[in-house]
Amino acid sequence: MKKWLLVLALICCVAPELMAQGCAVCTKTASTLDDKAARGLNGGILYLALLPLGIMGTVGFIWWRNNKTQI
pTM, whole model, 2 decimals? Predict the structure, then answer.
């Protein structure tokens, strides 16, 4: 198990530009748009990020609530 985690960590550290190529595409697209369309693109990105962040926040809150020490 530790071997697989080490391999995964090395892959993530060695090739970060492979995982961040979408940001360059969004930046290039947004630079060619007018102000209203760029705001719409940013709003869409935030909308798509809302669900995963909400799930992580809910799981974190439930974990925190269940692991509090009883006084």
Answer: 0.51
